């Protein structure tokens, strides 16, 4: 559904053709600057990149500049209308069929969306390589006043990707909020099994933090590590603590018990066979892991 190309400068002709076909058939490709301008051996394809048509851009007069300048998110885009300082990657870039979502102060396109076949290409003319360092210094949480600019930058990068992914049909199934604002610091891991979702969250909290967790629809939520059934809900409260990983299961049904059959006795060395199954309040359960002690 979505292909992300972060810093992917080298692509073979076979890979480029596969990307074009993917987008023509309804996929979305998201890339930052200079995608696929060299082949698998590092040789330039030419001044015009082989994926420029997918992104609706003209790079024949473009050059890598990597300079700080202000970027303005346009009113008719899927971003809020605002301005912030970010790094332009390529100067001289022009749009052909692509639509500007944001531009730099000299008019150079910053974020471009282009319809290509049934899908679309999204081009980020941004150098956000400093994002990880800023986020790693904790600017996504509580900050002192002089760090506010860095915090705004981190929030802007996160908002860009959240809005872009949402435009491609990818929305968060789980949202964590502190005082009504998204908590994006930390790492999240998702695993889906049938209709069920399992989420692990490693917070960057430096102290106990009360948060609100929202699920995209009302389901049966469990705090696995706490061995606690939270309820059939789409919203609940929790507390994040330093070094404490949260693991939730979000199930389409409530587990009401376990069925299992064992013999009354076994001989030494005999294999123990257990035929076990999950009991639920409704529907057929998906696969589960049993812990036997």
Please tag this protein with its features.
single chain, 293 residues, mainly beta, seven-stranded mixed β-sheet, seven-stranded antiparallel β-sheet, 4 helices, 14% helix
Can you tell me about this structure?
By secondary structure, the chain is mainly beta. The protein is about 15% helix and about 40% strand. The chain contains four helices and 18 strands. The protein has helices at about 15-25, 50-55, 130-135, 150-165; strands at about 1-5, 30, 55-60, 65-75, 80-90, 95, 100-105, 110-115, 120-125, 175-180, 180, 185-195, 195-200, 210-225, 230-240, 245-250, 255-260, 275-280. It has a seven-stranded mixed sheet with strand order 1-2-9-8-7-4-5. Strands 10, 11, 12, 13, 14, 15 and 16 form a seven-stranded antiparallel sheet that branches. A two-stranded antiparallel sheet has the order 3-6. Strand 7 and strand 8 form a beta hairpin. The longest helix has 20 residues, at about 150-165. The chain is elongated.
Q: In what order do the strands lie side by side in the largest sheet?
A: 1-2-9-8-7-4-5
Q: Low-confidence segments, ≥5 residues, pLDDT <50?
A: 137-146
H/E series = EHEHEEEEEEEHHEEEEEEEEE
Strand content: 35-45%
**SSE-based structural type:** mainly beta
| Main sheet: strands, sense, barrel | 7 strands, mixed
Average per-residue pLDDT, rounded, comes to 88
What portion of residues is helical?
Answer: 10-25%
The general outline is elongated
Using DSSP, what is the number of strands?
18
Radius of gyration using CA atoms only: 24 Å
Tally of DSSP helical segments: 4
Q: What is the end-to-end distance? A: 42 Å
């Amino acid at each position: 559904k979505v292909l992300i190309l972060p810093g992917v400068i080298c692509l073979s002709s076979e890979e480029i053709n596969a990307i074009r076909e993917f987008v023509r058939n309804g996929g979305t490709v998201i890339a930052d600057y200079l995608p696929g301008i060299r082949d698998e051996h590092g040789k330039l394809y030419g001044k015009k990149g082989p994926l420029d048509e997918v992104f609706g851009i003209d790079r024949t007069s473009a050059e890598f500049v990597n300079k700080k300048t202000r970027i303005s998110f346009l009113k008719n885009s899927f971003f809020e209308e605002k301005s912030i300082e970010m790094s332009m990657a390529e100067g001289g870039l022009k749009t052909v069929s692509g639509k500007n979502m944001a531009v730099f102060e000299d008019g150079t396109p910053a974020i471009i969306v282009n319809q290509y076949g049934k899908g679309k290409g999204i081009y980020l003319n941004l150098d956000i390589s400093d994002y990880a360092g800023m986020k790693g210094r904790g600017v996504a949480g509580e900050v002192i006043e002089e760090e506010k600019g860095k915090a705004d930058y981190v929030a802007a990068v996160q908002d860009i990707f959240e809005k872009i992914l949402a435009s491609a049909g990818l929305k968060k199934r789980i949202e964590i909020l502190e005082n009504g604002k998204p908590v994006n610091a930390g790492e999240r891991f998702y695993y889906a099994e049938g209709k069920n979702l399992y989420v692990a969250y490693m917070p960057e909290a430096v102290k106990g933090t009360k948060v609100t967790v929202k699920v995209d629809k009302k389901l049966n939520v469990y705090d696995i590590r706490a061995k606690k059934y939270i309820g059939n809900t789409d919203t609940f409260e929790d507390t994040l603590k330093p070094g404490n990983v949260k693991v939730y299961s979000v199930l389409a049904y409530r587990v009401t018990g376990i069925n299992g059959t064992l013999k009354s006795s076994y001989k030494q060395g005999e294999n123990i066979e257990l035929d076990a199954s999950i009991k639920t309040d409704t529907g057929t359960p998906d696969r589960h892991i049993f812990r036997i002690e």
